[in-house]
Specification:
32% strand, 1 helix, single chain, elongated, four-stranded mixed beta sheet, alpha+beta, 69 residues
Length: 69
């Protein structure tokens, strides 16, 4: 019998704008990536979403999180 386990509903990564980086305190919920501008932030979030098979969510305060549902 094969038992498959996986993690679900977890934050895999956080992508923040440099000016919003003081809003995020690392608490073990995945790595934090700091982007120089919104274009870089969107690009990083897109790549990380594809790599981790997660979904990017915009918290509308300069913070994007990548979550696996």
């Amino acid at each position: 019998m094969i038992i498959k386990t996986s993690l679900g509903k977890i934050v895999l990564a956080t992508v923040v704008l440099a000016e919003a980086s003081q809003l995020v305190v690392s608490g073990g919920a995945g790595p934090v990536y700091v982007a120089r501008d919104s274009q870089e932030q969107q690009r990083l979030a897109k790549y990380l979403s594809k790599i981790t098979e997660g979904v990017a969510h915009d918290l509308e305060n300069g913070v994007l999180i990548i979550v696996r549902h």
